[in-house]
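DATA SHEET
Item: assembly model
Revision: 1
Owner: S.N.
Input lines:
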Amino acid sequence: MLRYTLKRLVSLIISLAIASLVIFFVIEVAPGDPAQFMLGLNAQPDTVAALRAELGLDVPKWERYLNWVGGMLAGDFGTSYTYRTPVAEMIADRLWVSLPLALYALTLSTLIAFPAGIYAAARHGHPGDVAVMGATQLGVAIPNFWFAMMLVLIFAINLRWFSAGGFAGWDEGFWTGIHSLTLPAIALALPQAAILARVMRSSLLDILGEDFMRTARAKGLSRRQALWRHGVRNALIPVLTIIGLQFAFLIAGGIIIEQVFYLPGLGRLIFQSISSRDLIVVESVVMLLVFAVIVVNFLVDLAYAAVDPRLRSRT
Amino acid sequence: MRRNLIVGAALSSIVVVAALLSFVWTPFDHAQMNIPERLQTPNGVHWLGTDHFGRDILSMVMVGARTSIAVALVAVGIGMSLGVPLGLAAAARKGSWLDELIMRGNDLIFAFPSLVIAILITAVFGASAVNAIIAIGIFNIPVFARITRGAALSLWEREFIMAARVSGKSGPRISVEHILPNVANLLIVQGTIQFSLGILAEAALSYVGLGAQPPTPSWGRMLADAQTMVSLAPHLALVPGVAIILTVLGLNLMGDGLRDYLDPRLRVART
């Protein structure tokens, strides 16, 4: 296990290093000089040069890359070009929206998917199964931002149960915050729940065909007891993997939903920074998201290998 | 489950036919503004109503289908034309540095949050349909490389490949002549699924203004335009949304149906 962990750790570090290089250079080739952009078209050349020096844009590219990576390792994400505040602080503020949103959506998706998947598997081939599978087909096909608009139309504009957008902030109290994240979380959770329900169903169906399930029935357990004690528990392993991956996806995937609901999260931060050429913010936020995805994947792999020793020998 | 195939193919063909038809005929000129007739609900003249400029929504949806299909199709083409050779090469030289390099590269692309990177690419290189295609296409490459390699690896163990090797055929030649035809079914099925994902991705990108630019209509931007008027004219949001859903649903059903039809051994519960 230690060998496996070390091997995975090395590839984790290599992935992160390559990812940082790719992100840095993709953004570096972006047309438009940030200093020129901030000062406008009529700026004097020496003013632009002074600002470039102030922002640290006058040093060679590779040196800036090293500064950026070195800074991030020390927890310093640089200073925003436009707001002149540390990027780390901006990210921390936004995380308090994006992270709870992702967790909320994940909880909802799990709460919907588990019963649906288990029900479908237990009634395999019956009308109930067909109905659940049909619903998941639809859930996968619905774009979440469109679903979000429909939720706003029904629950915010017509029924007035929720506000159509914006975020009240956690200072107003926990439930106020949760309330304003509810529609976005539902919109994010829908496609995830559809996928998760399918995984839950197929995983449980695999388990139900195993010999030990027949043994469980033979020793006198009822269908229901066998399903819950031996079926669902064993079926959970692949499901948990998918939940891990979905969490990583949700942190980054809220980006469009945040646009729909005008939520001040990481997604909106990226959009705002791109339009104001605040490259350092874009770089750092994207890197953070990639970091989150890679690390969550790594942890999922480790957890998986810890549970199932056969996986350690595979590459 | 032949039903899946029929329903899926029917839905997909409706969309494709509508897109093709829009080249020669649409009920109205999709770009023609007609302010006095704006925000009409569906009626006898404008079957799906009009938008805030009085443009005919049915015409816009038909032309928008063209954009969606073109973007998703070329993105699948990019993924296949690069991913399949990489996967074949990796499988042909299993365990070599080439295999290792290709698979690690794939893992890396998989690790990137695709939507964020697509947004980054289109934002950095400019919002356009072409950049949207590239941004979506890049993430199709590892999907096809992985699925090709996986299928090819098991084929390399088979007797008929052994026979081909004994008869003196080279690795690349075996890959093209014997492996490729045998993984083609799998690629077609995966192609339909990636196609449907591409439609969704294109809609998301053009919704945030990073896809096809005006005056080219696209479903995503129709939705973005509809958003501010959703309480006034819900049909503006409803129509393009339903178009996206039916297209994606149709392609997914067709993918499921095709897989069952082409290869019953692959009939596993799809996740």
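QC remark: Chain A has a mean pLDDT of 83.
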